[in-house]
């Protein structure tokens, strides 16, 4: 009887295992991987299509959930004990906090093969230095867009600061880019990683005041419009199926130049995109000649949050040549992703070719977006300070704001601490283009 009971128990376990894996004895194990990411609309559809292409070749099932409220959604899922298998985040500061709290799995050597700096700095945790995320898609921030037909003369800058839960980042992008080109990568790195005094260091103050000087005097109505308008612009009544039009597409009549990253071209498809010119921002920012070939970049990085081995496999697939090619084919030209060591612009895509050249060949140094390196509490304070300064750029206002930001910086000291102990924010956030990181 006892042997029979054991056989029944083993059979029941095998049946349960078959149900979980979707297979049977001798058959393939079909695994499900849930991916949480920032892309919705056409961007999300293109990424889902790429996942389906990968799934068809393997039999695993990939479920993508896109949201514009990524941090809030992920925090809620972590608190509920139901995280996604893979999360795609653009903040090194957030990723560092999750790793310090034991929420991230170290990437396997195969999954970490494309851990390119400055997007994938390693972390020292539990006495070991390992890779916890890799970039899937990257963007170039140090760009200025303008209409090709714009007559010569000083720029009339397009500025819109609203962005749902993270309003203010279009302004911090300005400050970061200016500081990088005025003070250089070393000072930029110390500032981004919490080792520079916001109030006392002249580089930070100079970046703020230079921004105000570049924008010039603005009316109360203009300031209010910029603070309340989305960086995507306003709906185009002539095209109800296209929810947004960019700032250069008529949302802010009269403006001629926009400081914005490479991702913004999704707002200018087809002929609208062909009518625009894209240039490095250095020539506009009153920086030093020594730093004109230094560029600020951002990225969407994939991290694994569960023990599901299929999640590690998917990260490897997404960064593979076939994964990249499938994603590029699935996306329209204006949504085609750029990659950290090579891009895939199609013949005739002059804008894509130019951006790819800056990312992979023309730059001396690439530096990761400073606010996305900062711990979230300091980043969010930076966003709010920029919004306040935009409204009131007087010296006294700047003194108060920089003092408040320095208080936040000194309190957190740039060192998240969690279940795995103190973790220093990575300081290798600047690197030559196309360089390969250390193996995990």
TrEMBL record:
The keyword Amino-acid biosynthesis does not apply. Residues 225-247, 412-440 are annotated as: Disordered. Keywords: Signal, Transport. InterPro entries: Bact_solute-bd_prot1 (IPR050490), SBP (IPR006059). SUPFAM superfamilies: Periplasmic binding protein-like II. Pfam families: SBP_bac_1. Residues 1-18 form the signal peptide. PROSITE patterns: PROKAR_LIPOPROTEIN. Belongs to the bacterial solute-binding protein 1 family. This is Carbohydrate ABC transporter substrate-binding protein. It comes from Streptomyces antnestii.
